[in-house]
Amino acid sequence: MKKTIRILTFCLSVFLFSGSTILAVAPPGVVENITAAIRTGNSAELAKYFNSSLEIVLPGNDGAFSKAQGEMIMKNFFAKSAPVSFTVNQKGNSAGGAQFLIGTYKTKTETLNVYILLKPVNNQLLIQQMRFEAD
User: Which of 19, 29, 82, 99 is the most buried (most CB within 10 A)?
Assistant: First the structure.
């Protein structure tokens, strides 16, 4: 039930953030670069795709953060919960240009569901929201 509520909340966020009529197409490699950065635990590479402020939800830590704060939070997260694997299970987009990724992040001790919302900003897709949540 909690998983269904989280997915519905995430999908609602996609539609709320997609209200603009600007269509942004992810340049080749954006989704792949984000995926590779998470897969390798590279917070600096991941932060290249952060909006100037973004929402991050991690086990034990969540809130709205600046790009620099977000990079440090992800650096600490990757240090404590080093990735063993990251798999994208689903990708999609909305008519307003927002895109999302849903995936599975595995460490040595746990498996987390990952939800990422990318929003068009100045014709560039940037991460607006990232959620790493236990089942």
Answer: 99
